[in-house]
Design a protein that fits this description.
- Helix content is 41%, strand content 19%.
- The chain folds into 2 domains: 62 residues, Winged helix-like DNA-binding domain superfamily/Winged helix DNA-binding domain (Arc Repressor Mutant, subunit A, Orthogonal Bundle); 76 residues, Lrp/AsnC effector binding domain/regulation of amino acid metabolism (RAM) domain (Alpha-Beta Plaits).
- The protein is elongated.
- Helix 3 packs across helix 4.
- The chain has a 4-stranded antiparallel beta sheet, sandwiched between helices.
Length: 156
């Protein structure tokens, strides 16, 4: 249960410093999270906007960095997924370490967080071997001093 809550928390993290979204933007984002292939017209019908208005809002949300990417997420039954907590050496800026990690294949996303760990990396691969290779590459990044990896057993 804790793993599910952690994953849900990080799925709903939205870039800070952006203009406040209104209720229509939030509805659009929820629909896209549920199905990123949904069409502008269908979104518009569900939130009470025209297709053009939806298209403009999605472009604005993308330009402002609220929507960072549209992606395909493979289910755990079709692949392997892990959440890795990373502690960094204070002599290395966390943001730079995070940028290096984002370039590693199979790193789905990263979050800079507060607490005992500085970075959370969500990793996915076609199998456990790919996930493990990715974790090993992360451990080699200069500035990483400690890792704690949790393998996702099931997601909903």
């Amino acid at each position: 249960m804790l793993m599910r809550e952690i994953v849900k928390f990080f799925q709903y993290v939205i870039a800070s410093g952006q203009q406040e979204m209104d209720e229509k933007d939030k509805q659009i984002i929820k629909l896209l999270k549920d199905d990123s292939r949904v069409g502008y017209g269908e979104i518009g019908a569900k939130v009470g906007l025209s297709e053009g208005a939806v298209r403009k809002r999605i472009k604005t949300l993308s330009d402002e960095g609220v929507i960072r990417k549209f992606t395909v997420k493979i289910g755990v039954t079709e692949g392997a997924q892990a959440i890795t907590l990373l502690a960094t050496n204070p002599a290395h800026p966390t943001q730079e370490v995070s940028k290096k990690i984002q370039t590693i294949a199979n790193v789905e996303t990263t979050y800079e967080v507060s607490g005992e760990y500085d970075i959370v990396a969500v990793i996915s691969g076609m199998n456990m071997t790919e996930v493990n290779e990715c974790i090993e590459k992360i451990r080699m990044v200069e500035g990483i001093v400690k890792t704690n990896t949790m393998i996702v057993l099931r997601s909903s």
